[in-house]
Design a protein that fits this description.
Strand content: under 5%
Number of strands: 2
Helix content: over 70%
Distance between the termini: 58 Å
Strand order of the largest sheet: 1-2
Radius of gyration: 34 Å
Mean pLDDT: 79
Largest sheet: 2 strands, antiparallel
Number of helices: 15
Amino acid sequence: MNFISLAATTSWLLKPFALLLSFIFDGVFYVVTMFTSNHSLAITIVLFTVIVRALMIPLMMKQQRSSRAMTRLQPKVEQIQNKYKNKKDPESSQKMNMEIQELYKKHKANPMSGCLPLLIQMPILFALFEILRNVPFYVNQIGDIYNSMALQVQSISGYADILTNNFQAVINSLQDFDMNTTESIMDLLYHLSREQWTVLRDVTGLAGNATFEANYALQASYNTFGVGAFTFNLSESPGWTGIGIIFPLLSGGTTFLQSWLAQRASEKRQKMASADGKIKQQNSMKMMTYIFPVMTAFFTASMPLGLGVYWIAGNIFSIFSQMILDSIIDREEYKEALKRKEELIEKRKLKEASKSNIDKMTGNRIGTAHTVNKSSMAGNKIAAMKQEQKERELYKKQLEEKKAKEQDAQASTEKKEEDHK
């Protein structure tokens, strides 16, 4: 089986993505067809979606951590903004932006990280649309089938007039169609509806041809999805009429659910981070929660059904993966909060211990006798500060030694238990 040249697109930007994804897509399809030919293309789309989205999980984790950091830093950002509230000159604006950027840098937060997953998904989506629109040019097994059928059609005398008279609407919808090339005939065959396939077999006289019928049955097995009255062709658009309307509704509904859950979780975190327990209403985000699902439903209704299957599967995967990621990051933040609390407690203990041994009036250690004058008080305060620093370091060192001893003791105990076993 020879790899089919990617003749479906000439876009220098889209073609590399389509080529890369086609290797993954073709490999998944090959594995699926080892087990079944029925609904294999739909199964491939779902598995492909899971693989691509799973590969993006590290990026999503990074985006979520940065987003959480941005939420926690929002009160401090507002403090900086209020600091320069009445200063409209360019110098003040520059200083304000520099302080905010330093704040983000210190806490490893990136305001642009939320856009990165979307920017990566967009070329993937466009490339996938290109693959699903021209599957025979990107999946070897399906390409071989359509190539064989296209050659049989071209072998019929007057095939150009037959196709023009019966399928002019389909021909008009195809880009750069050339009746004399096998690739264009393959493209035409792939975009025929089930009813049009019946017409093609009759007008070409190929209905009784064993080879053609076998290829037709195999491509139908690959390309159809569902059973009985709920059987769909993945190369067709579902539209807004008939039973196919369930796909635009599912696509829009799952998109809305994903956006709504993400927005609710974000608002909850903002409320917890806010000093007054309130959040600022972001009307633009709320509008997108409702507008984007409508756009998704519209695109699903007007584009190949395979793209709708990808979108629905991707939304479902995103909903569950978002729940898992939130749970993981929640545990990370809880551990980090405990660590910060312990560090604060240790600092307070060190401060109290150092203060308890220093006379607040003289700056000398309690129990010593000195004549107090202004110059000596100033010197004693400096000495007290140095002594306080030394005691903090000594106390910290003692804590570290104690912790090291405990770890050694634990390791020794574990070794004894292993030797005993």
